[in-house]
Amino acid sequence: MGDRGISNHSEVNQFILIGFQVCPELQILLFFIFLLTYSMVLLGNIGMIVLILTASRLNTPMYFFLGNLSFIDLSYSSAVAPKAIANFLSENKTISFAGCVAQLFFFALFIVTEGFLLAAMAYDRFIAICSPLLYSARMSRSLCIQLVAGSYFCGCISSILQVSITFTMSFCASHVIDLFYCDIRPIQKISCSNVFINKVVSYSLSAIIILPTIMVIMVSYIYIISTILKIRSTEGQMKAFSTCGSHLMVVSLLYGTVSFMYLTPASNPELGKVASLCYTIVTPMLNPLIYSLRNKDVKEALKSMLWGKKGFL
Fold it and tell me: Where is the G-protein coupled receptors family 1 profile domain (predicted)?
C-alpha cells in the first residue's frame, strides 16, 4: 500500500457510517426515535398491503398502484433503517463493502421506482377524472401491470448504472461516509478518483428520471384541475379533488424532501442528514397515514375488516 493509502476499491473491505455527530445521550434518543418511526413504517405499510389484498372494494387500479407504493416505501426504508438503528448502539458503526453496495443498490432501485410509479398514479387519476366513462376500459389490469413492471425496470437499470459507476472509483485512506447510510454523494467525497464523469452520469440519470416523471405528473394535474373547475357544484369539485388530493400530497412530500436534500449546501452536512432522514424514513411512515386518513374507501374497508374480526371473535 502506497503513501496515498488504499488505492483500489477491491482492497476496501468496509466503510464507517458516522451518521449524526451528537453526544452519547442523544445517540440513545435518536435510536428510539428511529426505532419508533421504522416500527410505524412497518405497521402502516404492511397494514395497507394486507388491507388492499383482502378488501374486495379496494380491487381497483388505484389501489393496485397504492399497494405497490406501500411495498416500495417499506422496501427502501428497510434498506436503510435497520443498519442505521443498529449503528446508534454500536461503537465502530461499520458496514461491509458488500453491504454498502447492496444498500445503495436497493435504495436507488426503490426510490427511482417510486418516482415512476407516482407518475403512473397521476395518469390513473387523470383518466379517472377526465374520462370516467372510459376508465375501466383504459386502465385495464394488463396496462396496470405493465406500468408497474416498467417502473421497476427503470428503477433497476438506474440502480445498476449508479452502483457500477460509484464502486468502480478508487478509495484512499478515508473510508468514513458522512451519513447514516451509503449514498452516492458522500461516497464520491471519499474517493481519490476523478469523479467528474461520475457526477455527469449521476446528474444525467437524475434528469432522465425526474424530468419525464414530473412532466407526466404536471400535465396530468393541469388537465385534472381544468376538468374539476368545469364542474358546476362545489360538492362535485370537492369530491373530484378528494380522489387525487392524497396522491398530490405524497408527490409533494417525496420531491420536496429529495430536492431539499440535494439543494442543501455541502458546508452544512447535518442539515442534509435531516433531509435524508425525512425521505428515507419519515415519508414512508406518512404515506399510509395520508391515504388512510383522507380516503373514504380505505377507512370503510378498515372498519369492515376490524368489525368483521370483532364479530368473528
Answer: 44-291
Continuous H helices in 131-233: 135-138, 141-166, 184-189, 196-229
- Orientation of helix 196-229 relative to helix 97-130, angle to 10°: 20
Comparing 8-22, 32-46, 116-130, 285-299, the range with the smallest average pLDDT is 8-22
Burial (CB < 10 A; 0-12, 13-18, 19+), residue 7, is: middle
Is the CB of residue 76 less than 8 Å from the CB of residue 107?
yes
Distance CA 180, CA 17 (A): 5
Confidence bin at 199 (pLDDT 50/70/90): confident
Cell 449514498 belongs to 183
DSSP letter for 178, please: S
Partner residues linked to 177 by β-bridges: 17
Angle among Cα 154, 160, 166 to the nearest 5 degrees reads 130
Residue 47 φ/ψ, nearest 5 degrees: -60, -40
Position 158, amino acid = S
Residues in the chain: 313
| Spatial separation of the C-alpha atoms in residues 306 and 300, rounded to whole Å | 10
Closest CA to 282 of 254, 255, 247: 254
Question: 29 CB contacts (<8 Å, ≥6 apart)?
Answer: none
Amino acid making up residue 139: M
Domain 15-300 indexed as CATH 1.20.1070.10? yes
In angstroms, rounded to a whole number, what is the distance separating the alpha carbons of residues 179 and 171? Answer: 17
